[in-house]
Design goal:
3 domains; DNA-binding transcription factor activity (chains A, B); homodimer; alpha/beta; Peripla_BP_I (chains A, B); transcription regulation (chains A, B); DNA-binding; transcription (chains A, B); Rossmann fold
DNA sequence: CTGAAAGCGCTAACAG
DNA sequence: CTGTTAGCGCTTTCAG
């Protein structure tokens, strides 16, 4: 018992009156430290009565396990990292919200990282956090697949809104969604669509374009792609101009932000929506219902995506590496019809400015 | 050197090939472990040449300090927690974004917690994280001031968009902002305003009401308060009805979300904005520029608030407890004039439904 | 400026 | 089911 007497190295400031440890609890409860440990970490492998005694002692002392000491030996941190490609995009809001809530419910802590659209920052931060978290949620990663596979070899990872062969992922279904989108446009009488593409290294951008092209072929529309564009409102101007130039009457923007920017530019150029052209977006962000005209968009319950991703990650953490499940979940999307789509008028588009 | 031979307790799964430690680096560089430690944590107190040698060895081995081991002895975690009252509110987006970026720049990790408008969850989470983070950013805390003082006695804390005597805080200036708001309404010819209040335990709500009331007195308007309302779009309906009932022509909603909900309800009831009544909000969220009519609102650079809060927190962490600065920073707000405010028409409001 | 040594608080064999 | 014991990887006196 004299063991714990030696002078402690002081923390820099005598700020914190050092809190009770398992030793204090053990002494008070009259058990070994390992028993205290078990009472907290493996409640199954300890006698009911002993456990109660330990818990009492702990409460009386105001004992709380030290997460770092715990992590140091057990290598479990009870922390998850979510790295998003661009925190500026409201779309991620929902994702983050869902993930945070699910993590909290599981008594996990959620660390948030903004990769600022940079694959380098993304990797750097994953690297930096690799010892601090139990697993990663990689949302809309801009990383080449090979790097992701490497990361996944070292840590539990679940991809969000991106699929990589061999890795767990949660996406909102978009192949069928894009089909519906194109079908909707076709049924309105459009014969041509343009996809205003997202970032060049965006898996989603490639994936959506493929789906749109296929659907267009199926419905007998011509489809072209313009861009890539940074999917923000600000870049909607250039995107709109590019769209007009293609002569297509169906404009499919990479996301709602870009679509809203397109809408603005179109209004400035006196191109009527949906009279002259129709515009659709992706994500169904809050603002899509507020802009004018209100935006038709492919939505999906993104909070659920965040939630599901955390759930899968948690399972993955609990499982031995080789038995680790690699589910590819696709949550349903839903085409939300609003006012930015309609039949293209017979009047040719022209610039009234 | 035989020290490190004994069988290591295996991690549950032989997942991770245990990474190099200071021991490995020390051996390779031919120095003591303490020297390796110094090379990373106190670069000043070590010879230039030695340091270089250690760093080389570390690089060759791919060594990365283990944050938990570090935290265990040093009690510094390089992690900050940001707890927001309601992650659902886009307003916090900006705050979070600013905080994340500043934290990342300082090589700190940002943990995100959603208090879901519950003071209990708020406190619970602070408690839970108290050993895992170096300090707290408490955004729009719903906590009684006394509890906050207690928390701040135990950890570095900076309040965001809330002031508590004796605690560090960053807010966007609103007293003057409310004055401008009321002045704007007065100059338009309004003679009465109603404040649609936010949550009962919201400091902001109390603070804004006080400022509005004072400003109204100053400009000779009558001011009444209605509510409290949960400041979401969904609750805008009831808020609008309450506002109409007061007969005031100047409607000041607690935030943009509520204001947008009010706008909707007003449109449904065929109350013209700004013909019959004017509506103003707070925060200048993205959607405020998109709704119709576009919303006049009191904005401010919220990302800067997040950034500033992190900066202050970082300083606070570096300082001994009693010398800890307690700045109360107020960043400028800005009244953004848009289309939801105008002169009240002579036609009495009526329900055309 | 550098090395030796003693822990930080906890978990995980290993016995019993 | 419970106790003993040896570390996890790092920081920090304390000497030199």
């Amino acid at each position: 018992m004299g063991k714990r007497l030696p002078k402690l190295p002081m923390s820099r400031f005598d700020d914190v009156v050092s809190s009770p440890t398992i030793y204090d609890v053990a002494r008070r409860a009259g058990v070994a430290t390992s028993t205290v440990s078990r009472a907290f970490s493996t409640p199954g492998r300890i006698g009911e009565a002993t456990r109660a005694r330990v818990l009492d002692a702990a409460r009386e002392l105001g004992y709380e396990p030290n997460p770092h000491a715990r992590a140091l030996t057990s290598r479990r941190t009870q922390t998850l990292a979510m790295v998003v490609s661009d925190i500026t995009n409201p779309h991620f809001f929902e994702l983050i919200r869902g993930a945070e809530m699910r993590a909290k419910a599981a008594r996990y802590t959620l660390v948030l990282v903004n990769a600022e659209e940079s694959p380098r920052i993304e990797l750097e931060q994953v690297q930096r956090l690799s010892r601090s978290v139990d697993g990663f949620l990689l949302a809309a990663s801009r990383q080449p697949a090979e790097n992701l596979v490497k990361v996944a070899a070292e840590h539990p990872v679940v991809m969000v809104n991106r699929q990589v062969p061999g890795l767990a992922s949660v996406v909102v279904e978009h192949t069928e969604g894009c089909r519906q989108m194109v079908a909707h446009l076709a049924s309105l009488g459009h014969t041509s669509v343009v996809y205003l593409a997202g970032p060049p290294n965006s898996w989603m951008a490639a994936s959506r374009w493929a789906a749109i092209r296929d659907a267009a072929a199926e419905y007998g529309l011509t489809a072209v792609r313009a861009g890539p564009f940074t999917p923000t409102v600000g870049h909607g101007g250039a995107a709109a101009d590019a769209a007009i130039r293609t002569g297509a009457t169906g404009i499919i923007a990479h996301n709602d932000l870009l679509a809203i920017g397109v809408l603005r530019r179109l209004a400035d150029r006196s191109v009527r929506v949906p009279g002259d052209v129709s515009v659709v977006g992706f994500d169904d962000i809050f603002a899509a219902d507020l802009c004018s005209p209100r935006l038709t968009t492919l939505g999906g319950a993104h909070a659920n995506v965040g939630r599901a991703a955390v759930e899968i990650l948690l399972e993955s953490i609990g499982a031995p590496r080789d038995l680790r499940p690699v589910p590819e979940v696709a949550l349903p999307s839903e085409l939300v019809l609003r006012d930015s789509t309609g039949s293209p008028g017979s009047t040719p588009r022209e610039d009234h400015s």
